[in-house]
Amino acid sequence: MTMKAEETKITFPWTGTPIGGWGMPAQAGHELFEAQMKHLQNFAQTMQQAYSETLNKQMEVFNATGERVAQSMQEMLRCQGAGDVLTVETQLATAVLDGASQRAQNWFDLSRKLQDCCADLAKASFEDLRKQGEEMAEAAESTAHETGKTIKAVKSATKQAA
Hints:
The chain is mostly helical. The protein has a domain at 47-109. 84% of the residues lie in helices and 0% in strands. It has helices spanning 5-8, 26-77, 82-161. It starts with a helix and ends with a helix.
């Protein structure tokens, strides 16, 4: 007895791949690559924006501190007594320490933004890989089911032929 064409059709997932049909489909690999590139672009843009904002803040702090120090130095030149010198030195120290404190806070804020950016990138990448794994598991399950059908059809045809 002859077998129908549908019964003899053997299906492999992702035909046309270099490893004989067992591997990641080219389209899924391309989609994963595109998703990763989008995540990296977003990551780079966010990082660039964070660095730019921090640089602007640092320059503002530097300029404000420079102005306060220059003003304190001018007042120092006008001092006439020890009490005036102590007052101006205190103002000078306050200006320098305030500037250092603000710069440290800016660096802290930047590090927090960078941490958030890295965590977002890792989460997005993991989610893409998880989805791809689920899709591959579903495809493997479907292929196993189809292969089981094909084996049953071949056994049935063999019995009928014998």
